[in-house]
Amino acid sequence: MEQVDQGKFSCTGCGKSYKWKPELAGKKVKCKCGAVVAVPKELAPPPDSEVDLDGLYELAAEEKKSARRQQEEPVGFRCPSCHGDLEIGAVVCTSCGFNLKTGSKASASKPRKETIAYAGGSPAPGGVPSAMAGYGARSTGPAAMEVDYIGDNPLKDFGVPAGLLLAGVMVLIYQQTGSSGSFADALPAIGLSLIINLVFSFIGMFAVMRLFEVSFGAPGPAVIKAAACCVLPPAIAGVLGEIVGSDSFFVRMMVSAIFMMPLTFACFYFMFDMDYDEVIYLVVVIWLVNEWVVTFLLNFILASGGGGDVIAFGGGFGGGGGGSDSAEVSHDQKVKEMMGLYDLPKVDPWLQESTNRILGEHGRGESEQILQKIKDAGAREIYVNASGSQAGDLFVEMPKDKKKRKEMLDYHATLTGDPPLKDRGQKWLIFEFLP
């Protein structure tokens, strides 16, 4: 039994070998490549318990020479006995049985197994592990060192990722409709955010996979898991950024980044069971995509006439509204930029500090009347951008009620003499009193 414990079995999908254990006998295990493998109930002891180290080194040297000759010859490497084509790194010719190491053919009196030993330790599908397994490329992740019994788990592979993906979409919808409460107005921004985020995140993850040999497992479950990791953490981080830093662009951006990174790390680590360094690469990709690519392209598309809400650049998914018309876009953008750069005061305490403080060229009494009408129209917050004792601009946070929003826009048009702005779900409205 002790010899059996030291046996190995191979994955039928990728050929990776694992140590056989009695407690796994007859059960199903999942390889890191995603294939489900049935563990044999018993394994025969290896034919040769002695390991010929000298032979391994000679075999490694011979395989390197074979691979080098394969690259140098334009027609490929051929068997010296039958002149048939050989696989790169093959030691035994599958056509005639000639052994490149020993220089002899397999005995004709005994049935011959056509098993190819590959340099790097990867056996042919259904074959036995190569003697060069010790010289194979490093595999990372817990599954590369030990296989755990997990069997078929559709809940973890499909149910949980699909639920998290749906939750991420719902959080994004809640965030985008938070300022105006209108799903129709926010729908273009929601759709574009998801498309840009997923497309560029998947491109980045594919690059990480190729550069650092990161494995995501079976394609079907991997797509759903990766999509959940790309959507849910940025959406949650964006909402938290809005709550903590609603009045400051810089604070909102920092809070969003602080929360996004650990949430994305936890999501990838839970979904794919990867090593720390592999997860870090993916976290950086998702952060860059959401903080720069999504916001830049979304602002560019919507500001060019795509409609819907515009997101403040640098704020990830966070950021209130704006619209397709340049006036609405400029109002939200200007307020967020100004409030991110300066600690602007609220209008009431600023006005009460001195009786000489007024709104532009309006007198004191008229300034108080204007301010009261803005409050009556449902203003949520009012900030002042002042120069000395004169307020150049009032930054008014729009109400959520549609009737109040229309009242606010109508009064803005009456006071400024400009045509009424359209209600695009914008969060801020600027009353300008000085040029």
Summarize the structure.
This protein is α+β, with helices and mostly antiparallel strands and 435 residues long. The protein has helices spanning 2-5, 53-72, 142-145, 154-176, 183-212, 219-244, 249-272, 276-306, 326-341, 347-352, 364-376, 402-416; strands at residues 8-10, 17-19, 28-30, 36-38, 358-359, 382-387, 390-397, 428-432.
How is the secondary structure organized here?
Blueprint: H1 2-5, E1 8-10, E2 17-19, E3 28-30, E4 36-38, H2 53-72, H3 142-145, H4 154-176, H5 183-212, H6 219-244, H7 249-272, H8 276-306, H9 326-341, H10 347-352, E5 358-359, H11 364-376, E6 382-387, E7 390-397, H12 402-416, E8 428-432
Parallel strand pairs: 5-7
Antiparallel strand pairs: 1-2, 3-4, 6-7, 7-8
Helix pairs in contact: 4-5, 4-6, 5-6, 5-8, 6-7, 7-8
Alpha-beta content class = alpha+beta
Query: How many E-type strands?
Result: 8
Low-confidence sequence ranges: 1-5, 108-151, 306-326
Count of discrete alpha- or pi-helical segments spanning 4 or more residues: 12
Broad shape: elongated
Percentage of residues in strands: 5-15%
N-to-C series of helices and strands: HEEEEHHHHHHHHHEHEEHE
Instruction: Estimate the helix proportion, in percent.
Output: 40-55%
Overall pLDDT level: 74
* Biggest β-sheet description: 4 strands, mixed
Distance between the termini: 91 Å
Radius of gyration, in angstroms, nearest whole number:
33 Å
